[in-house]
Amino acid sequence: MSEAARPTVRQLRIVVEADDHDAAVAFFRDALGLPEQAAYAGEGDERVVILEAGRATLELANPSHVRAIDAVETDGVTSPRIRLAFEVDDAAGTTSTLEAAGAEVLATPRETPWRSVNARLQAPADLQITLFEELESLEERSQREGFGAGEH
């Protein structure tokens, strides 16, 4: 496909069905601090809230990599097929805030070999999430062995 023929993606939006909508909104908007972009109400009890989460990326990992991440990040907790990850300024502080807001801490914050501090939590709407705090820039990280290996 030529560069000119490629579609232009402007946003990645993850849509989650939350049985307890109020608890999910309180957790992600109020406790985690994702700003509300829009909210809609329809017939009956139909409701949706769209929250901004900064820059979006899509991380595609093979099963071997997922197992390796689980081993480093969690002491054995396994990832679901889809897991959300949020970059934060203070992984330890945000973990405490979210635990107080009802999250179950699956793995406490710890420094990873790729120089980030990661924590794993079970959040409302049956979502497993990772909080990560980068300790070095992408430029610094890209100089490490193994990074950039997926470039084509």
Describe the model.
This protein has 152 residues and is an alpha+beta fold. The chain has helices spanning 21-31, 63-74, 91-100, 138-142; strands at residues 36-41, 47-51, 84-87, 104-111, 116-123, 127-134. A hairpin with a 3-residue loop joins β5 and β6. The protein has one domain (9-142): Roll (2,3-Dihydroxybiphenyl 1,2-Dioxygenase, domain 1), CATH 3.10.180. The chain is globular, with a radius of gyration of 17 Å. The strands form two sheets. A four-stranded mixed beta sheet has the order 3-6-5-4, with helices on one face. It has a two-stranded antiparallel ribbon with strand order 1-2.
Major pleated sheet: 4 strands, mixed
Q: Helical content, roughly?
A: 25-40%
Secondary-structure class? alpha+beta
Point out poorly predicted stretches: none
Number of strands: 6
Any idea of the CATH class?
Alpha Beta
CATH architecture tag:
Roll
Averaged pLDDT: 91
Structurally, the number of domains stands at 1
- Spatially, the strands of the biggest sheet line up as 3-6-5-4
The fold-level CATH name is 2,3-Dihydroxybiphenyl 1,2-Dioxygenase, domain 1
The end-to-end distance, rounded to whole angstroms, is 15 Å
Going by CATH, the homologous superfamily would be 2,3-Dihydroxybiphenyl 1,2-Dioxygenase, domain 1
Q: What's the helix-strand series?
A: HEEHEHEEEH
Beta-strand content: 25-35%
Structural shape = globular
Helical segment count? 4
Salient structural properties:
152 residues, alpha+beta, 2,3-Dihydroxybiphenyl 1,2-Dioxygenase, domain 1, 4-stranded mixed β-sheet, 25% helix, globular
